[in-house]
Amino acid sequence: MDCFQARFLGLLSRRDGNELALAERQAFVRHLQSCPECQTWDRNDRAFETQVTAVLNETPMPVQLESQILRKLAERARPRPWLWGAAAALFLFFSGIGGLVYWWAAPGKIDLSPNRLAELHAKVGDRQGAQSWLLSQGYKAMPSDLRSEFLVNYELIDFQNRRVPRLTYLYNGERQVLAYVYVFKDSQCRIASDLEESLLSHGGGQSASLSRQPGYLFLTISLGGSLEPLRNNNIQ
Amino acid sequence: MFWPIRSPIAMEQLVKEHSQLLYRLAYRLSGSKSDAEDLTQETFCQAYDKMHQLRQADKAKSWLCTILRNCFLQRKRHSDREVNLPVEEQNELPDRAPFEVPEFDSVQLQQALSEMPEAYRTPILLYFFEEFSYKEIAEQMSLPMGTVMSRLARAKGFLRQRLAGLVPDARKEGA
């Protein structure tokens, strides 16, 4: 072991003695015993470390600092009512803004009051009534392939996140047939992705079909078998 | 052992046990008593907010020192007061020509420390103050142990020469 290695190990052994193997420690001690120059180096270096440590530790901490820190931490730990107040004010502010935006941008409300419902029921079976109702909702088309005398209801319903008109047709013959016709504007649906998916999802005694009129699409879903009894045979 | 999150008792214990060390370290890093007080307070406030990060109570000391150093570095970015003396020119490993250093006081030592770049000042302070091992310093500073050893050797060499008057005083040089 040369002096360079010995000093390196000497430094390491002061704080990280466990990092050294026993053989290394023994070799270092042997070298130190036999090398006066390293003995001097080790003595001076240790003395320098002791001197620096002593001077560094002379720095006294201001007596009030500990209590200042504890006071500051206690303040931090204390619940701050003004913070909750500020949070509540912010919440109310943004809720108000959100409400205003919704009020401004929300779609027109659908009148489902008892009077309106009674009015709707009074129109059941009335093609003219259904047509004017659709018109009032902004739809200028009626399915022409189904017989209007079997129309029993019309209403707005939620269909795949859209509010669309649904006409209900009922045939109470030998075999009952119920058909729902959903009316879409072309701008409202992407037939490839949305409607085909919904068509595929209908099975087990249900059938679905699509028909078109300029600017409109009708999705008919029937329960109870063939739509034939509901068909308007006069249609060309 | 898991430390209770934001427990006031745990925080009080931390303050009582470590505020002295942190203040001394802050003073030696910043060279100013008022900065040291601010840094110590800031360190404990940050520690309070980050208490959940402390998983082992026996690592509290080095965890606090790391927070303090980060606080100091953040402040230092805003003020460029550092004078870089040629610490890098010192030997990486133990001096081949050891010599005795004459007596020096706290002010002279602080002056010499302030002339060192922070990358050298921090390991030497951690080494001398709480007798952190090279390994612990390496962990705190996220450096390889060899780098810490070489920085410490250089820093010690610089301090020795500076305190023995072999390296000129930066204040006089600058004047």
Provide a short characterization of the protein structure.
In chain A, α1 packs parallel to α3 (36-56) and α2 (22-34) crosses α3 (36-56). Chain A has helices at residues 3-15, 22-34, 36-56, 65-77, 81-105, 114-122, 127-136, 191-201, and strands spanning 151-159, 162-171, 177-185, 206-213, 216-223. Chain A has 236 residues and is of the alpha+beta class.
Describe this structure in words.
The complex is a heterodimer of chains A (236) and B (175). Chain A has 236 residues and is of the alpha+beta class. Helix content of chain A is 49%, strand content 19%. Chain A is built from eight helices and five strands; from the N terminus they run αααααααβββαββ. Chain A has a five-stranded antiparallel sheet, with helices on one face. In chain A, α1 (3-15) packs across α2 (22-34), α1 (3-15) runs parallel beside α3 (36-56) and α2 (22-34) crosses α3. Chain A is elongated and about 120 Å long. Chain B is mainly α and 175 residues long. Helix content of chain B is 64%, strand content 0%. Chain B has helices spanning 8-30, 33-49, 60-78, 106-114, 118-129, 134-141, 145-163, 170-174. In chain B, α1 packs antiparallel against α2 and α1 (8-30) packs across α3. The relative contact order of chain B is 0.13. Mean pLDDT of chain B is 78; it is low at 1-5. The chains are: A alpha+beta (236), B mainly alpha (175). Chain A binds chain B through residues 3-4, 7-8, 10-12, 15-16, 19, 40-41, 44-45, 47-49, 51-53, 55-59, 61-62, 65-66, 68-70, 72-74, 76-77, and chain B through 6, 8, 11-12, 15-16, 19-20, 23-24, 27-28, 33, 37, 40-41, 44-45, 48, 93-96, 98-101, 103-106, 109, 125, 127-129, 131-135, 149, 152-153, 156, 159-160.
